[in-house]
Amino acid sequence: MSRTTTGRGQRAPKGVMKRLIRTIFEFYPVLLPLTLGCILINAIVSSVPSIFMQNAISIVEDHYASGDWSSASGQIVKLLTILIIMYVISLIAGICYTQLMAIITQGSLAKLREKMFDHMQDLPIRYFDTHSHGDIMSYYTNDIDTLRQMISQSLPQMTISAVTLFSVFCIMMYYSIWLALVVVCGVVIMTLLARHISSHSSSLFLRQQINIARAEGYIEEMMNGQKVIKVFCHEDGAKAGFDEINDEIYRTARRANSYANILMPLLGNIGNVMYVIVALVGGTLLLSGAPNLSFSGMAFSISIVVPFLNMTKQFAGAIGQVSNQVNMVVMALAGTHRIFTLLDEEKETDEGYVTLVNAQENEKGELVECPQRTNIWAWKHPHHDGTVTYTRLQGDVRFFDVDFAYVPEKTVLHHISLYAKPGQKVAFVGSTGAGKTTITNLINRFYDIADGKIRYDGINIKKIKKADLRHSLGIVLQDTNLFTGTVMENIRYGNLDATDEECIGAARLAGADDFIRRLPEGYNTMLMGNGSNLSQGQRQLLAIARAAVADPPVMILDEATSSIDTHTEAIVQRGMDALMHGRTTFYIAHRLSTIQNADAIMVLDHGRIIERGTHEDLIKLHGTYYQLYTGALELD
């Protein structure tokens, strides 16, 4: 199984949060500012009680000496009325922003999942060959879930805390600059401490996310291989492998959370110390009669010190709320970084401009494009001078001195030259790793060649759009992939425009019609879990039927009958012969008996064609093929 790196020493880049907010704004350009406005109202109102407390104490102080409590009570009632109105506004704003955040959160996640899935459809096969399926699934589950928690909880809470901090600090400066400076000193210490701890935890949280993805990839691999594990009694080895990955998750998560969880008690105690210091400084200034430095111009009094203590507690609490969210934010940013890394993966490039169109012959016998469906397909080839030529799709495939390497330093195909004329059957024989499947991967441009040329009906395949090229090819792999749906829907997957009759005809051609009609609901039988309610041979027959309904001029059979028993193979082989009739076929042989009637057999060894010819020619040659056929040499 291919695995991604563990990401030791990595940390989410600083621009992730900015990019996330920009992305959410692109999704909801109206709702996001509206939600932010509601959050601001809610946060600002939370700072109001300190002002009302100061005013209430001032009223009591002013009327204490005179004893005119009726006037004081009237003013206090007025203050309370205004306070109640503001709290009602805050309540409405709070309800609005929570409802809007639910829409934004779930909507953003849905759109991100859609973007990821759409982007993955455009990624090259190379990406899926180098990333485990479990790792890819982790983007849609674990990473998205951490992002959900941050958008729905952490971001609103941190915004509220930030606005509260700013508004409370402004009120502090208005009432007393001296006491505000005491709070500033405490905030500086808190900020430096939080920054130091989060810098250590961020890289650990990213490693945690990557390790969780590794665990999901390992579990997916073990679930797919349960039968092999039990047959070879490898349960203990599987457990040991999982324990190793799980222990790594535990170590990184423990260290990351140790850093993050220590922050709250530290900041809480600093807040308590700051509260005591403000009380001492305020009391000292109040008793000494020292002049007050403030924007309000008010002298030191109990009406300033008491609300200031409340604001200090509120200030420390807001910082504590932020620190409470650090754990979740850092973890979510690690997951978000992984999501953006996926979205930044380079898409499969396609420089092709030759397309596949329906065509018909005009009065002069020339091919012209036809908007209706016809039985004639042609390559539409536009030229620089504005002219367009049409070449009938026939299935003539030729390799000219082709070299290829999956990685630059290791060439796997060397000087491959071959041709397959329309209707010919070309078979590939060779040991594992000889390059058989690689050649077929080059025909459909899952990978691009390093050197040489491949021509399809005389056209360089690099000039043909990949979608059109692949539309002209049918492929049956050794490992079948069926999808959740009916048998009919799985066959129609090869040609979405096919009628039921065409699908049934393809099933008959493949030899699948008989067993399908014996299923509980025939062609309407639902398949689940990659066709787990069918045998391997039956799944393979459906895959062959799916290729048959596409009716392509070129067919690629990658050991298509290797997973089928001898009795079923005889049935399939008859269908395969009918399927290959009149089509150019590239056949990767598992059993030499299935390719004796091939027009050409290519024997490969370490990426080179060492023998070529018909079955009779190669037998007379007494070379590698002869040894394979007589059993003197076996394929590995």
From TrEMBL:
Q: Per its record, how is this protein called by name? A: ABC transporter ATP-binding protein/permease
- Annotated TM spans: 20-45, 79-104, 158-175, 181-198, 262-287
Listed A to Z, the keywords are: ATP-binding, Membrane, Nucleotide-binding, Transmembrane, Transmembrane helix, Transport
What organism is recorded for this protein? Candidatus Enterocloster faecavium
Q: Please give the GO cellular component terms listed in this UniProt entry.
A: plasma membrane
- Membrane topology value: Multi-pass membrane protein
High-level lineage? Bacteria, Bacillati, Bacillota, Clostridia, Lachnospirales
Q: Where is the ABC transmembrane type-1 domain?
A: 34-331
**Its principal location?**
membrane
Note the SMART domains from the entry. Answer: AAA (SM00382)
Entries under PANTHER family matching the protein: ATP-BINDING CASSETTE SUB-FAMILY B, FATTY ACID ABC TRANSPORTER ATP-BINDING_PERMEASE PROTEIN
**GO molecular function list:** ABC-type transporter activity; ATP binding; ATP hydrolysis activity
The question of whether Nucleotide-binding is a record keyword is answered with yes
